[in-house]
Amino acid sequence: MRGWDLVVQPFSYDTAFVFMEEIMQKFFFNKRLIIVLVVLIISFVLIAFSITVRNNKATPPLVQQVGNDAAGVVDRVVAYPAKGLKGAFSSFSDLMNTYSENQRLKGQVDSLAVQKVTNQTLEKENQKLKQQLKLNKTLTDYETISASVLTRSPSAWQNQVIISKGSLSGIKKNAAVMSKKGLVGRVTEVNKTNSKVELLSTTNDSANRFATQVMTKKNKVVNGLITGYNGDSNYLIMGQITVKTGMEKGDRVITSGLGGNSPKGLYVGTVAKVEEDDYGLASKVYVKPAADFTDLDVVTVAKRVD
Amino acid sequence: MRISKMRYFFPIGLFIALFLDGVLSQVFAGTMFTPSLAIESRIVLLWIVMAVCFGKIDHIILWTVLAGLVFDLYYTGIIGAFVVIMPLIVYLTKLMYRFFTPSFIVVLLIYLIDITVATVVFYWINLLIGFTNVSMAGFIGLSLGSTLAYNLAVFVLLYFPLQRFFESFSR
């Protein structure tokens, strides 16, 4: 009798306990499921909303702008020591190879002076001719706004940097952005005091395309669009080519100014190879970009004046 | 009741870590984003995981939601990714941490699982909205492996200072 007590008594307690717990768990499980679903739905709605804003609106909503501007201010404070440290390192490495560089550059400086004078005379002549033709603004005219790069998205999928100027300095959405060497990207989001720049190295499907042209050796022009980026070879892909023939490796590629966002004559890079399209109809041109997308300190935003 | 100093230190450190990620990505962009690898710096997740494991922090979910919102607003412009991932990491860490006694190896493993979850979810969201077209295999080779290696190194460097910090201020 006593042994039976010992065995069964705890067992019956246990079953009751397990039963209660099952009910409780079911309740909590349901509650948790609902929370998870609600969170997922909210998240999807937010993502859909921000993509719509990104694609269609000139500026994000005011709340978003204020948040971004506040974040920008804090970021400047955090970035300051890190940038200083980087500056110290790079000036040290600069110092190490100053002599050889100086020797090399001396040779280039003399020829540059000649080029500069020619450039100035041509520019003046150009202005006079434009005045005679009563041609005040052409596609090549643009104002530049220089900005420093605050930070880069710590993300493998957004090739995006944030620059230190915004709508207060006159930056517009979709404006072309250049480094010292060439075109690097376009402005995708404008806040009051900072803006986001999507680099050309992005693989985003909905990225806005730059209208470009190849200047061939025989003074012909081939128009096209930058349609993509090949990450493995670091080449930009130029598609929608108007004519196939005449392009050679090393031909310069510039923006054509068509399409209304970028001015004409921003340097993009050089032709690396010309290839048939997948269907053999049009050709694809691989462009070696002049700018290094991973080494950006100061950028220039080109603002069209027309 | 004595007010813990952690009340101020945790959010300040959280946002410093958040912006430090971006600054490091910018300064070392040449080595972190090459054709063969893409490293995502996630010091902010290290801060959160260490806080969950060794600190006593009030409203940690609220703070992480806020940090996730700032991440989405400021870095990507796509709201809704990290705003969910960051609290998810807190929840996951709490869930796993319950079963173990704290040690270097245990927290390391938890942190690696967290990084993997965060990276995979973030990749999946970006795949869904067409920001990338890299295949799953490509993603593992390009981003996941290098991200884990980098964050492991950061973890080894910062584990003991952060552990001491959280333990001494959470008493």
TrEMBL record, chain A:
Protein name listed in UniProt: Cell shape-determining protein MreC
Keyword field: Cell shape, Coiled coil, Membrane, Transmembrane, Transmembrane helix
Coiled-coil residue windows: 112-139
Gene Ontology process terms (BP): regulation of cell shape
Cellular component annotations (GO), alphabetically ordered: plasma membrane
Chain segments annotated as transmembrane: 33-53
Residue intervals of the Rod shape-determining protein MreC beta-barrel core domain: 149-302
Family under the similarity heading: Belongs to the MreC family.
UniProt xrefs under InterPro entries: Cell/Rod_1, Cell/Rod_MreC_2, MreC, MreC_beta-barrel_core
Top-level division of the source organism's lineage: Bacteria
Free-text function comment from the UniProt entry: Involved in formation and maintenance of cell shape.
UniProtKB/TrEMBL annotation, chain B:
Keywords: Cell membrane, Cell shape, Membrane, Transmembrane, Transmembrane helix
Transmembrane segments: 44-66, 73-92, 104-125, 137-162
GO CC annotation: plasma membrane
UniProt lineage: Bacteria, Bacillati, Bacillota, Bacilli, Lactobacillales
Name assigned to this protein: Rod shape-determining protein MreD
Coiled-coil segments: none
Family listed: Belongs to the MreD family.
Chief site of localization: membrane
GO annotation (BP), single: regulation of cell shape
Organism: Liquorilactobacillus capillatus DSM 19910
Entry-linked Pfam families: MreD
Subcellular compartments: Cell membrane
Membrane topology, from the record: Multi-pass membrane protein
